[in-house]
Amino acid sequence: MASLRTFDAFPKTDQQHVRRSSRGGIMSIMMYLFLLFIAWGEFGSYFGGYLDEQYIIDPELRQTTQINMDVMVQMPCKYLDVKATDITRDINDVSKRLVFKNIPFFVPYGTTFDSVNEVRTPDIDGMLADAIPLKFRENIPDADLPEEFEFNGCHIYGSIPVNRVKGELHITPKGWRYSSRQRVPHDEINLTHIFNEFSFGEFFPYIDNTLDQVGRYAQQRLTRFHYFVSVLPTIYRKMGAVVDTNQYSVSHNDITYTSSRLYTPGIFILYNFEALTVVVQDKRISFWAFLIRLVTMLSFIVYIAAWAFRLVDWLLISTLGPRWSLRYGEPHDSSKGLLE
To answer: How far is CA 238 from CA 5, 74, 97, 133, 290, in A?
Structure first.
């Protein structure tokens, strides 16, 4: 029994034959801190999720949509007419659905002329924060303006329903494009205009669009402005919230005529809806998938770090000598045995 008491199945090295080094401890602490940093970042990515963007064919059959517009034209309202048409050859007199209000024409602060805003897809958090649906007011109270102000402009705003197909929106002087009881005199035509708002679908006033705060000067009275709009439906989804909106790109040109016999001056917006839909969705992996990923990543880092530590230690000993070893703080004399 005495021999069993002194038997040690896992013998230990005597303390007198062990060399301690602070370098290995420092490296271990640095490694633990690095692993903690990696784990912290992975937890943040797990709770924050990731964005998944996909192009899909619109699964819904949508027959109609609405155009939200807020335009100022440097002409009295009595001279302007707004109509919508599409490939079905239907002509919709949308003037009855819009509000026309005479105002002194002015240029709002921040308006950009002769160019359009940069097309960009907003981040999902900003989109959800700005996606507050509203409606245009049917009437804006008149401001007390001095009598010397000239009401030479027209403020046109509202939402109009249109077929969800390729179509056009026309803002023209009365009697020049469509039949009317009156024909606007040539000297009264001035199609300088500013878009305060132009969007498709549900009206979100806080979301910036390509034509918002964009204006064009009419250098001549018989000027025809063209806007070619390509509409791309976009759906944002995050934590149960869904925002169904549309983003669009615009190209434009203008043509000036010397004769009005063949061409009509006006503002012509030609729009087309893309068949594809962009879905921007916030997703998260399952907890078990995240845990397996985290353990795998940390284990791989530890494995690579251990081999890198051994390689660097071997290179230091081979080139600079044992005293530079990362494992031992003192040089190791291999010519002497442990008992010498």
So the answer is: 67, 43, 35, 17, 19
Cβ-based neighbours of 253, under 8 Å, separated by 6 or more: 226
Which stretches does DSSP call E strand in 62-213?
Answer: 64-73, 80-86, 91-92, 99-103, 112-113, 153-163, 167-173, 193-200
All structural domains of the chain with their residue ranges: 54-123+146-283, 285-326
Model pTM score: 0.69
Q: How far apart are CA 81 and CA 93, in angstroms?
A: 8
- Alpha-carbon distance 217 to 254, whole Å? 10
Alpha helices in the chain (DSSP H): 2-6, 22-48, 124-130, 287-320
DSSP state of 176: T
Residue 153 and residue 71 in contact, taking contact as beta carbons nearer than 8 Å: no
CA 217 – CA 229 distance, rounded (Å): 20
Give how far Cα 23 sits from Cα of 19, 29, 183, 195, 274, Å. Answer: 12, 10, 93, 68, 64
First to last CA, the chain: 34
Distance separating alpha carbons of residues 225 and 264, to the nearest angstrom: 10
The one-digit pLDDT tens for each residue of the chain (340 residues) are: 555 555 555 566 565 555 565 666 677 788 888 888 888 888 877 777 777 788 888 777 778 899 999 999 999 999 999 999 998 888 888 988 999 999 999 888 888 887 777 666 666 666 666 666 667 666 665 555 666 677 889 999 999 999 999 999 999 998 877 777 778 888 888 999 999 999 998 888 888 888 999 999 988 888 899 999 999 998 888 777 788 888 899 999 888 877 656 678 899 999 999 988 888 887 777 888 888 888 888 888 888 888 888 888 788 888 887 777 766 655 544 444 444 4
Q: Which CATH class is domain 54-123+146-283?
A: mainly beta
- Rounded distance, CA 179 to CA 251, Å? 29
CB-count burial class (<10 Å; 0-12, 13-18, 19+) for 87: exposed
